């Protein structure tokens, strides 16, 4: 596939900054000066605006990017329903979500390398809430793939922004904006509508959260101040990189490109005569980006009590209610714990938010036992107001542990997709995948000990008796 020499040299360079106005050109002079859409853009390119928000969104919320490309995106034959639509074949019909109060946990999901699936065909909807047609809600997914996408193919989702969390295997993601190499312990976000292709160096597995409404932001720091958690400077966006593979007719087979789109969790397909990766330059604040989780600055107590897990929030997608998120992405990386007379693991609680957890590597300090355990590649779901917390063994260990400063989670990283929405489970997640751990709640908390001891010489008095 012919590319420019300059673009090849820039393949894995990145620009830094979160939600900043960035620009990149693979050939000097590709970006017009002083005009977004001049009468004749440089080098005979087409100007195409990619809007991530309504035109009239407030200036501080407005997301848009101008792409300067060889041919516009609209130059393709009509889309047709795809026979590979997972909504039709994999029990992912969101109208049939099962909303249940029971705690759920899954064994590691299959790698699928023997099934010869790529990133798109290997993605499965496990749980979700809302309706992508109304641009409301989220989808919680896992992926497992054993091969790269075809070099003459691309995919985009019209449903929402996709946050990808690799657990095993590197993802070499080619986007319209350029390339992103995303490894385990890194994450990336592909905005709604951006075309991309995923190349693999071996079997890959991980998690993803699709955001049907709004976009991810950095959480406000409040009393923490100007530093801490994820810093804007550590987010990276690709530099422009393009191909000149165009001009053939779609009927010529090997010279055409397969384009797949996901709309309302259903796949559609077309073949077009030119590559979708023909953007020579771009400028704006709507672009794919990645982040190294190792750069997260954890915050914690140095006196007493265990802070809320919100102190581990990397990205947040706010709802219309102040301080309440449609989706938070939270991590639990290696960190020091101190605290006087304080229970160290996450305490027992019932939450108005839904919590979907996964484990990228290592072990989780609040889950040591249970039916099969909470292990890398697996997941758990604790729905709205479903009680949960450390399993019995973890509680006893923490209750009797010395309170000297200790570093927990060495070599480990768990994460959580947290949402204010009540989350339903798909047929695939509940039955088809055959990974749900039976007896999870009983084996985790059925053995919780009673430590209550009635004080000697004390009478139980009732105000009703008086």
UniProtKB/TrEMBL annotation:
Example GO molecular function: homogentisate 1,2-dioxygenase activity
Gene3D superfamilies: Jelly Rolls
Keyword Protease on entry: no
Domain Homogentisate 1,2-dioxygenase N-terminal: 13-293
Cofactor(s) this protein requires: Fe cation
Active site location: 306 (proton acceptor)
Residue sites binding Fe cation per the record: 349, 355, 388
Binding site for homogentisate: 364, 388
Keyword Ubl conjugation: no
Pathway(s) it belongs to: Amino-acid degradation; L-phenylalanine degradation; acetoacetate and fumarate from L-phenylalanine: step 4/6
Entry's Gene Ontology BP terms: L-phenylalanine catabolic process; L-tyrosine catabolic process
Family named by the database record: Belongs to the homogentisate dioxygenase family.
Official protein name in the record: homogentisate 1,2-dioxygenase
Enzyme class: oxidoreductase
E.C. number: 1.13.11.5
Annotated ranges, domain Homogentisate 1,2-dioxygenase C-terminal: 295-451
GO cellular component, one term: cytoplasm
Source organism of this protein record: Hypocrea virens (strain Gv29-8 / FGSC 10586) (Gliocladium virens)
Keywords annotated in UniProt: Dioxygenase, Iron, Metal-binding, Oxidoreductase, Phenylalanine catabolism, Tyrosine catabolism
